[in-house]
Design a protein that fits this description.
Blueprint (H helix, E strand, L loop, with lengths): L12 H24 L2 E8 L3 H10 L4 E4 L2 H8 L22 E6 L3 H9 L2 E4 L11 E3 L2 E2 L20 H6 L4 E4 L2 E4 L3 E4 L7 H9 L5 E12 L4 E4 H5 L1
Antiparallel strand pairs: 1-3, 1-10, 2-3, 4-10, 5-9, 6-8, 7-8, 10-11
């Protein structure tokens, strides 16, 4: 009697094996980079965007950047003085918590810190982050920038979008082929945690509220075998 398809067992060994191989590769790459570069920076990322992280990788083509799998990276550096890869390197691993990565470089630390202190990229907000400003669309004809530009510099919102913006919560209606609001409509208030409807409206009106930023937390120097906390150093 043939086996039922419902009773078919799917073995995860191949998936597990691939994941293990990737972790082992990351472990080896982190250790190789530690032996190659003079400094190891731990950095955190605000409003993660792969596009901007790729830009950072491009700008630091002479360095190595790793992001994700913090437990593997921490183990590669060493969790204690008995298993650390380089002298006193275990002192860097407590900073490997949260949305963080490692930057291996031989560039001077002052250059790295000044570069990232000035580096930001603005993007559209995603659901779950707080609004950085209050955004209100004026009453009357709805324009493509929602009142951010003077009427003479803007164009009315296409009538074909009326159903869409209404679905996203704006109480609009069509009047003589134009999208109209009876009263002003506040899309979000400063500090309010945004939902998907709000972020969709903000993007449509061209209002960017997310800031991609890389913050350096601490770094290790191979020459001095010391770990410096960036905030403490800057104070």
């Amino acid at each position: 009697m043939p086996k039922s398809k419902r009773a078919k067992v799917i073995h995860m060994s191949k998936t597990d094996k691939k994941g293990k191989e990737l972790s082992q590769k990351l472990f080896a790459n982190v250790r190789e980079a530690a032996d190659t570069y003079q400094y190891i920076f731990v950095f955190s990322v605000e409003n993660m965007r792969n596009t901007y992280l790729k830009e950072v990788r491009s700008e630091f083509a002479d360095s190595r950047l790793f992001f994700g799998k913090t437990k593997v990276m921490a183990k590669a550096l060493g969790l204690t003085d008995s298993d650390e890869h380089l002298p006193n390197l275990h002192a860097l691993t407590p900073y490997l918590a949260g949305n963080v990565g490692l930057l291996f470089t031989s560039r001077d630390p002052s250059t790295i810190l000044s570069h990232f202190a000035a580096y930001t990229q603005t993007d559209y907000a995603r659901a779950g982050i707080p609004a950085t400003q209050t955004f209100t669309v004026p009453a009357g004809t709805v324009y493509s920038r929602g009142g951010e530009l003077a009427v003479e510099d803007d164009v009315p919102l296409p009538h074909s979008l009326e159903v869409t913006v209404r679905k996203w919560g704006m109480p609009t209606r069509l009047v003589s082929g134009k999208v109209v609001l009876e009263d002003e409509y506040t899309v979000c208030t400063e500090g309010q945690v945004l939902n998907s409807n709000q972020t969709a409206l903000l993007k449509m009106f061209g209002v960017a509220m997310a800031e991609f930023r890389v913050d350096m937390k601490a770094y290790y120097s191979a020459a001095t075998q010391e770990v410096k906390e960036v905030e403490a150093m800057e104070e």
